[in-house]
Design the sequence.
């Protein structure tokens, strides 16, 4: 009964440090990324709601990235706190087996490992894919929001728009449009034109399902290629009272193609092993298969290193009376555990180069786990024998 209360106390302290560290790192990185994502509004012309939604949907990815490091820091801080407050000394003198506490920390690390596996393999890809869908679906929503008064707006490649005035309900006045990539196409005149210049007194974006730009009282100057054997440029000017331009070809500079990290784990595994299936979405061919395998290893392999760093930090539970060695080991084991995480992060990029590299990446923590555990047992036994001697 007493041991259960002790483990509960340790678990609460460890969880407190873990959550504080994790959310602190996440908040800092998310703030920096949120500033970078402002380009979605400033350069790409997306609505503010799209920016906020896209930024928030990237939070789980940041959380997952910092789970191993946050757990490492939390475990170090917890052990140091227990030692400074003599809680560990009281436990040892009361007869609690150190290996029981080691096993407890390992069990907690397995919970954290499972937590990261679920996020990395299931939750993150789905949420990131939804964030990319948010960008795709907003291609037409940004038309009215991207237009800023008294500025030349070039958020869409090949299209420049200038508006002198714009009311709150979306009505625009004194509009200048330069289309150099045939982005806009007139419903009334769908013939091929290049370098179209449109000047209109009034206009507005209408019909959210099939967005169109309605312009009134203006002219269209287009450079048109004449038909026939002889090809020459011809400038054509058309006056209009009302014209309607399709916006179906209007797209932002934002990347709308789904990235590998935004693809579900099932599709990635299917993509890697079913090499001849060209129907699989976002399945790269040839050498880019390395990126697919690296991403699979990142999702399934990286979490396996959390129990390893936990066992390394468990060496801190073994008290050393010699002050010079005590200070050294207090820094040595946390740094060594941190280097393991750094090495795992570096090697995962190269693990996709071959199936052998991937196999080594998975086997390394599985082999290290029992070796380190037996070394902890040997270390504790040696310490007990030294004290008795």
Sequence:
């Amino acid at each position: 009964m007493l041991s259960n209360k002790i483990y509960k106390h340790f678990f609460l302290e460890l969880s407190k440090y873990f959550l504080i560290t994790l959310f602190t790192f996440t908040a800092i990185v998310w703030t920096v990324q949120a500033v970078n994502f402002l380009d979605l509004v400033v350069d790409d012309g997306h609505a503010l709601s799209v920016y906020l939604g896209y930024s928030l949907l990237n939070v789980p990815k940041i959380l997952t990235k910092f789970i191993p490091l946050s757990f490492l820091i939390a475990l170090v801080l917890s052990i140091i706190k227990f030692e400074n407050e003599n809680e560990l000394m009281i436990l040892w003198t009361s007869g609690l087996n150190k290996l029981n506490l080691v096993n407890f920390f390992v069990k907690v690390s397995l919970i954290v490992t499972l937590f990261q596996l679920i996020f990395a393999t299931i939750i993150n890809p789905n949420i990131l894919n939804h964030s990319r869908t948010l960008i795709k679906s907003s291609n037409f929503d940004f038309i009215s929001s991207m237009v800023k008064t008294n500025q030349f707006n070039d958020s869409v490649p090949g299209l420049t728009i200038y508006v002198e005035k714009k009311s709150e309900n979306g009505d625009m006045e004194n509009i200048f449009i330069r289309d150099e990539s045939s982005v806009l196409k007139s419903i009334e005149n769908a013939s091929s034109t290049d370098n179209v210049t449109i000047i209109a007194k009034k206009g507005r974006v209408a019909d959210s399902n099939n967005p169109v730009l309605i312009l009134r009282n203006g002219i269209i100057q287009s450079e048109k290629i004449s038909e026939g054997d002889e090809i020459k440029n011809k400038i054509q000017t058309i006056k209009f009272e009302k014209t309607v331009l399709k916006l179906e070809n209007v797209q932002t500079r934002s990347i709308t193609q789904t990235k590998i990290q935004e693809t579900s784990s099932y599709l990635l595994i299917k993509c890697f092993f079913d090499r001849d299936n060209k129907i699989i979405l976002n399945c790269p061919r040839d050498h880019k298969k390395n990126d697919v395998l690296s991403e699979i290893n990142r999702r399934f392999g990286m979490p396996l290193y959390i129990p390893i760093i936990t066992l390394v930090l468990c060496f801190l539970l073994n008290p050393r009376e010699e002050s010079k060695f005590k200070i050294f080991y207090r820094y040595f084991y946390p740094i060594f555990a941190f280097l393991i995480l750094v090495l795992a992060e570096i090697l995962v990029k190269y693990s996709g180069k071959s199936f052998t590299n991937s196999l080594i990446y998975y086997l390394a923590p599985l082999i290290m786990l029992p070796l380190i555990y037996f070394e902890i047992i040997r270390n504790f036994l040696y310490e007990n024998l030294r004290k008795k001697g």
